[in-house]
Amino acid sequence: MRATLSLIASALLLAEVAHAKNFVLKNLCSKPIEAGVLQNGQSTPNYYTIASGSSTTVSLAANWAGRTWARIDCDQASEQSNNQQCGVPGTPNPASLAEFTFEGSGNQDFYDLSMVDGYNLPIEIQPIGASQGSTQYICGSPICKTLPTCPSDLTVLTTQGDLLACQSDCSHYNQPQYCCTGAYNSAATCNGGPYAPMIKSACPDAYSFAYDDSTSTYTCPSGTATGYTITWCPSGSSTPPPVTSKTTTTAKSTGTGSGGSGSCGSGLSACGAACYNPAQYTCINGNTLCPSGDQLCGN
After folding, report:
1. For 201, phi and psi rounded to 5 degrees?
2. In this structure, is the dihedral angle defined by the CA atoms of residues 247, 253, 255 and 257, taken in order, positive or negative?
3. Signal peptide location in the record (predicted)?
4. Pick from 21, 28, 70, 64: which is nearest to 48 by CA?
5. What is the set of domains in the chain, with CATH numbers?
6. Strand 243-244 versus strand 150-151 pairing type
7. What's the pTM?
């Protein structure tokens, strides 16, 4: 009986190993990166230091779900001691994320690039051993080659004053209408805030806010891809994104908006530290942007 149980356990282990998937973590940035891999429900990531031009392969369970990211000018020690500059990404220290759920609904792998909290490095996901299907969202390769411009009010700086990352409207302002929470917890009521369209314009494959599903979710039949290659700086550069003085990427002109003042692009108005399109948003109390026609926002 013990021998039989041992054989069964060995067979199950071999089956699990046979169906395991790999991450190939590739660094095309000009500097070494510290890549983190964190399983959902866990609090401590596994970290991998990857030299410029090199890659590391990580084996994962067939039903694994979680995310991966990378940072420059961090190491394993600083990941534990300097959470502002390094550590697990969150609203105060965002990073460009690659998110995965293996063997999800319909026996599909789900994956995406997320900049919902912000971004720090260009990034790409490529399925291994699978060809793109009838649309780009079936076994396709989402990519963000060039980061969006970062407004000065959304910058996250290192202790030396260098640009570390760029926050999103949600992570910086923590407003329900930007974070898709409370009364805005649906695709019909949330559009992510005034900066989300700028993220989407620069990186159309990535999530720019929580309900950006229709143009950001990728799937691949679970038995098709043997793994996924995640490449940071796919174009071979790690230059930080340019910084503007306000939440806009258009040419600046000085003027006063309805509820705020400052330097905004042509056709935009100022609201506190942000610039906005008056056709889409209303400035409340001089510092809160609300979608036009929204009766709940700001009250």
Report:
1. -65, -40
2. negative
3. 1-20
4. 70
5. 2-244 (2.60.110.10), 252-291 (no CATH)
6. parallel
7. 0.77
